[in-house]
Every structure is written in structure tokens, then in C-alpha cells.
Design brief:
disordered N terminus; alpha/beta; 294 residues; binds zinc ion; lyase
Length: 294
């Protein structure tokens, strides 16, 4: 057995590797190689690159055997890297807290007082899309939920709780569903094969494909991929509108407004899909009207 590492803290194994690899964005998929070059160009040292020489790890390998495989020098380096990559966060945090205090002495006093964000952001978990950084918002201005491929599934208690809390208690004015081109989750859903544990999650996107099959089947390659990303955002916006919290709050206050955006890695810009909140709400309420009591 050989070890497979993307970075020391991201071990994958056996069948799950196949599924996870499908989630990798276009352009860096390596399905059959012995190892994948770590994608962390900002790693604190060149150490991560050397991990590429390690052996492939398999979940079926007994723990003791796995331990025996690791050579002491590599083990030492792995531990050193783990310590460094942990410690840098605390160094960064200390630096950030000092900077914020310098810029605005009352900053942390204000944060402690509570939150009143205008925005709820529902985005992809992809590490390349820092919501506050790309929107220029400060801590306290955006309530955030992220999952693979920015899905709003009505039996996902997590996202439903977030929407409910953001709308009914925080009284957010805007709900943004933000997808991104090059989304690994969408790509995986376009791949017709068994993805194991990911199947139920990806089913949501495959259903979006089915709903828009006529349009998507006229497209090829990247154009099809990009369009499914947009259509997925559109359908998730519709799912947000289907919730009782959003419908009832809108009926009372004329907010929140739901928006569908897509982020592009190529230029760092957000594209507004011009989701028609009111038009979609009217259409949805023909069947999903939840504004009336029993
Ligand atoms: Zn994504």
C-alpha cells in the first residue's frame, strides 16, 4: 500500500478518494497518479511538496502496518508541518486582533454587543471564496452558511435553521445564494457514476440537471458546466423562497430579497444572475404558499 496525500491534514483513502477527487475543480484533477501535488501554494514551507513522495494510504491497511510504513524522518517532518500549520493560525489571529484594535479601538466592544447583519450568504464550502473579503464586508455584516455546491435542501436541518434564524430573528434584508464557476460539487454531479456517500447530496444537483435537461443538452463542455452552476444557483434561490420564514417575512416587511450570484475565479468578480424575486415568489406560491395559517 502506498500513501496518498494532498496535504498532510487531508488524507483520503480507497473509494472515498475517487469521490473526493471528483470534487476537485477543473484543471487539477489527478485520478490515477500515485499522489497529488499539494495545491497550497502558500504553504509555510516547501515541505508540503516533499509529501508527494510519500506512499499511498489505504483505509483497509491495518493501523499497525500503516505505522510501520512511515519512515521516521517523514514522520518527524509531518509532525513539524502539522505544528507549524496549526501555530500560524494563532500568530495570524494575534496580528489581526492587534490591527483591528489599532484601526478601531471600539471594534471588539461593538462586536460583543451583538449582531445585526443585513445579509445572509449561502455559498459553497470551496476554500477559494472568502465571502467577506470578496464583498468588502466587515465582521458582523454577513450571516454565513456554506456547504458543498451551495445547496438549500429542505430536509437539511442545518441550512433550514440558518435561514429561519437569519430571517425571523436577525431580520436580514438580503439572502444571497452564491455559486461559483469551476464548482467541484457541480462537476461531480455531472459525472455519471457512483460517488458513495456523496450520492444523496449530489442528487440535488442531478435533479437540477433533470429539470433543465433540454437547455443543458444543447451545450457542450465548459459552457454546459458553467450553465449548470448558474441553474443550480437559480434553483437554490427558489428553494429559499419556498420556506415559510421567507414568505411570511416578505409578506409583512417586503424583505428579505433573494439574490442569485456566481463568483468567477478568473477575474474575481461576482456575476448577478438577476434572480426575479417577486416573479418567482408569485409563481412558487401557486403551490407552495406558506403565508396562511391552518
Ligand atoms: Zn463549489
Amino acid at each position: 500500500m502506498v500513501m496518498l496525500l494532498r496535504a498532510p491534514h487531508v488524507r483520503t483513502a480507497g473509494r472515498s478518494w475517487t469521490a473526493l477527487n471528483a470534487l476537485r475543480p477543473r484543471g487539477d484533477v489527478a485520478t490515477s497518479s500515485k499522489f497529488v501535488t499539494p495545491r497550497y501554494s502558500t504553504t509555510p514551507s516547501a515541505f508540503a511538496l516533499r509529501l508527494g513522495s510519500q506512499e499511498r494510504y489505504c483505509s483497509s491497511t491495518p493501523v499497525l502496518q500503516r505505522r510501520r510504513m512511515a519512515d521516521p524522518e517523514t514522520t518527524k517532518e509531518v509532525r513539524k508541518y502539522l505544528q507549524q500549520s496549526h501555530d500560524r493560525i494563532f500568530e495570524n489571529n494575534k496580528h489581526w486582533a492587534e490591527e483591528m484594535r489599532k484601526k478601531k479601538p471600539e471594534f471588539f466592544t461593538d462586536l460583543s454587543a451583538g449582531q445585526a447583519p443585513d445579509y445572509l450568504w449561502i455559498g459553497c464550502s470551496d476554500s477559494r471564496i472568502p465571502a467577506e473579503a470578496i464583498t468588502g464586508l466587515e465582521p458582523g455584516e454577513m450571516f454565513i452558511h456554506r456547504n458543498i455546491a451551495n445547496l438549500v435542501n429542505n430536509i437539511d436541518l442545518n441550512v433550514m435553521s440558518v435561514v429561519n434564524y437569519a430571517v425571523r430573528h436577525l431580520k436580514v434584508k438580503h439572502i444571497v445564494v452564491c455559486g461559483h464557476y469551476g464548482c467541484g460539487g457541480v462537476k461531480a454531479a455531472m459525472t455519471p457514476k457512483d460517488m458513495g456517500l456523496l450520492n444523496p447530496w449530489l442528487r440535488n444537483i442531478r435533479d437540477v440537471y433533470r429539470l433543465h435537461q433540454d437547455e443543458l443538452d444543447t451545450l457542450e463542455g465548459e459552457a454546459k458546466y458553467d450553465r449548470l452552476v448558474e441553474l443550480n444557483v437559480h434553483e437554490q434561490c427558489r428553494n429559499v423562497i419556498k420556506t415559510a420564514a421567507v414568505q411570511q417575512c416578505w409578506a409583512e416587511n417586503e424583505f428579505p430579497v433573494v439574490h442569485g450570484w456566481v463568483f468567477g475565479f478568473n477575474d474575481g468578480l461576482l456575476k448577478d444572475l438577476k434572480f426575479d424575486h417577486e416573479g418567482q415568489l408569485a409563481e412558487i406560491q401557486k403551490i407552495y404558499d406558506l403565508t396562511k395559517d391552518f
